[in-house]
């Protein structure tokens, strides 16, 4: 380390400071130690600062100038030594941090736990996939429906109890010529689709429906249906039976037996319930029937030329029958212990 010439005898402590500083600086082992030493060497309470404050007591201007230059030279040398050591310590600490944070890229990655669709969604998707495989197209309609499409277009008379507020949830939709309601089934899409498409028609309609029911083991005010409609020029009840029997075999298993029991629906004639033998007993699965000619007339189809069948099933019921669930509320319970069973 160089010394500063022409330094007055009173400044010898600075020369001594400069001589000892390199060893002190090299001995620091961390940036914190270096910061403390820097304050001691060039800080406000250091000999450098004291010497600068003493410049005012030197009367001779040349001597004051030379002394100030000498002090600044010592300060600059100390600052350079501190800066060099700071760079060295910073590099060491960075390397140490990188070593501590090192990741072994050859180790297997941590796979986050994957989610899954809800059982009802899984059931709807599988039902739809089966019918798509049979040549059907997926169609969807509005959940807020008009009274015409939900009831009138489907040949449901004005005196039918399903039109009452005790069964159907009506909406306050402003001034309109007809009532607006939350659809009670996915069947309105039959009329909507036939109005906009020429035959033949082969559609499956999944969706959410609403009824004024209290929640219990078998009822819910909100549930899901899958509707189907086939219209062509030579469809018979045999086509209906064959299609739904094939669906049951694909959904429940190849040896599933089905039977059709006469029933009544305003929008089909004749109508039936399809039952399947599963879990050791006969269980009602869905409603179905040949499309009522009155429905064709509502949408402008000629019932003398065309025929068709329709069916509708509850997705929750299909899931319950397949998995042996006896209480509908298990499907809408957010308890993770229940949901995990159907991953």
Task: Characterise the protein shown here.
With 343 residues, this protein is an alpha+beta fold. It has two domains: 9-100; 119-342, BirA Bifunctional Protein, domain 2 (2-Layer Sandwich). Helices cover 42% and strands 20% of the residues. It has helices spanning 12-27, 31-42, 47-53, 61-100, 119-133, 147-150, 188-196, 237-252, 293-299, 315-323, 329-332, 336-339; strands at residues 137-138, 144-146, 170-171, 180-182, 201-210, 222-232, 257-265, 268-278, 281-291, 307-314. Strands 1-5-6-10-9-8-7 form a seven-stranded mixed β-sheet, with helices on both faces. The protein has a three-stranded antiparallel β-sheet with strand order 2-4-3. Strand 8 (268-278) and strand 9 (281-291) form a beta hairpin. Helix 1 (12-27) packs parallel to helix 4, helix 2 runs antiparallel to helix 4 and helix 5 packs across helix 10 (315-323). The longest helix is centred in the first third of the chain and has 40 residues, at 61-100. The two termini are 75 Å apart.
The gist of it:
The protein has 343 residues and is of the alpha+beta class. A hairpin with a 2-residue loop joins strand 7 and strand 8.
Q: What attributes does this structure have?
A:
single chain, 343 residues, alpha+beta, BirA Bifunctional Protein, domain 2, 2 domains, 7-stranded mixed sheet, 3-stranded antiparallel sheet, 12 helices, 10 strands, 42% helix
Summarize the SSE layout with pairings.
Blueprint: H1 12-27, H2 31-42, H3 47-53, H4 61-100, H5 119-133, E1 137-138, E2 144-146, H6 147-150, E3 170-171, E4 180-182, H7 188-196, E5 201-210, E6 222-232, H8 237-252, E7 257-265, E8 268-278, E9 281-291, H9 293-299, E10 307-314, H10 315-323, H11 329-332, H12 336-339
Parallel strand pairs: 1-5
Antiparallel strand pairs: 2-4, 3-4, 5-6, 6-10, 7-8, 8-9, 9-10
Helix pairs in contact: 1-4, 2-4, 5-10, 7-9
